[in-house]
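To fix ideas, we now present one chain and its tokenised fold:
***
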Amino acid sequence: MALAMLAAGSLRAQEALDTTGTRVGIFGAYQLVQQQATIIGIPGVPTCSPGFSSGNGSGFAAGVLGQWRSSSMFALQARLGYSTGTTTLRVQENIGNALDNGEVVIATTEHRLKTTLGLIDLEPRLVVRPFSFPVSLNLGVQFGIVSSFTYDQEEAIISPTNVRFTGGLVRNHFTGKVPDAPGVQFSGLVGFSYELPLSPKVSFSPEVTYYRSFSQLVSDSNWYAHGLRVGFSMTYTLNSAHTFADSTGPSKMLSATVAAVKLSDDEQSGAQMSKMHVEEFVAPQLRPLLNFMFFDEGSADIPSRYDRLTPQEAASFDMSRLQNLEVLPTYYQMLNVIGLRMQKNPAATLTLIGCNADAGEERGKVDLSRRRAESVRNYLRDVWKVGEDRLKVEARGLPEKPSGSTPDGMEENRRVEIRSSAPEILEPVFVVDTALTTDPAAVRFITEVASEVGVEQWKLVASQGDHELKTFAGNGSVPHTLDWGLQSERASIPRGSQKLNYRLEVTDSVKNRFVTPMGSIGVEQMTVKKKREEGLADKEINKFSLILFEYGKSEISDANRKIVEFIRQKIDPNAKVLVTGHTDRAGDAAVNQRLSEERARSTARALGVPNADVKGLGESILLYNNDLPEGRFYCRVVNVVVETQIGQ
């Protein structure tokens, strides 16, 4: 359990670990010892033993190590330490008749040979790391200089308990130093280790190693001691290099750089970002509630990403639970929001229309569509106690307005559409939240990578302290630019005053690895509390979204007109209004750019704000996960931000 917790806490450090160069460290282990023998006992020591064959014991090992890595796959390691193990060989023997309270019985004795072996160990090893994950194979030999080798040999009666030798229960008891023992023990070893980085230069590795002895414990005897060690090593990197020599040929060059600039800046200007400003505001938000629930192919079960409650949990559910949630987590509460609103509006009814992709395994399966609608009905009926007479179920093949026959379109067609007789059941969710704005609104990482043999995989990580904020990763060539839309990824916005750090790691096709030096951006944060304490000017930021645009359309729908009217009431004459159009990933990028601009302009016209800042971003910044159907729907959006100055 402790190792599992350490591994979880070290995942981010692992990406930054220097695996190159020279290391020093320590190791320790608990060892299990097995002796295999064909001996009578200690040479020259009296015994009646019929002969020993095997025995088990334990001990420990500890010492220091040094390592030199010659390539990304191979390293040479040397260990110097001390090990000790105590082992007992046992064999039982019937020694004949004996008297037990006047009766003749068979007496049994046990011959015991207990040895303790201490070695000064020297271990040269070859460390092989054939995988991208940090598991290494250790191959090597052990030269053990015998520092002590003692024995304790005896024969004891074990049954019957009342029988005695002349003089007691034990006879032939001798102790001392084992004679005729060679001064050096020689063994082969094989083992595995798993590297858990604690920092870019320090790592902790659990280890398992098996030792097979090739040296007799006593000259001219068939007596060997083998071992299994379970332990750890901890190393520190003294120096490192970011390129490796290919173990099978000439050195393969690999290098990389990464710089951060404001997305709006000319990347050729060389103006690398040094500081970011983060400000907190009171932010009422209007989040449209998408009235579609999507299902997995061939399934009528509500997917696990939708938040479902027990009847007991539903009894305590309220809209305050939606505070500080992002858009998609709010959407995943849709059945609970609808259930609560249905309880508060006992006259309202719902129509649940089950649909399918009408392709592949779903072709013609209207019964599947019905079961999907029934799953939604059953949840609202059983958990939210909405009367079944208020929940009408319908079924069809494709939706009335299908999303198309592409894989994404078919995924969007596998849905239940929810319609209500009362508009307030499906109206947007309104919450008063806090918002963070950043200057700049987006960061662009500019990369330069040179590789003689091509890039296999890469990863760019931006973090603040131990908290990983954003990760870009992929296989093959590294994109020249990577854009981080901070405003659309609220969870990734830096908090506090700790620096934002970033670095790029690249692995080429022959496993050479390069990690760029750590880059950093200063963070300045202004909170609402600080502004109020210092009497600074502040503003309220209202955020509204209109998502009910049909696929490929820019016209304002009836549902969106109601939202537009709501927004108009929130616009102060001196307010600053920003209208931004977005699209999902489907279709041509240029077409999507024009479509997002048209949606933004039509929304601005409907708002009646001639001085609004209107722009379309198309699919250049995807707001939500486009691998999910709901993520694509929520990307077909126009966001309206109304900033109103308040206070000083």
Summary: The chain is about 15% helix and 45% strand. The two ends are 55 Å apart (CA to CA). Confidence is low (pLDDT under 50) at residues 1-18, 241-251, 265-270.
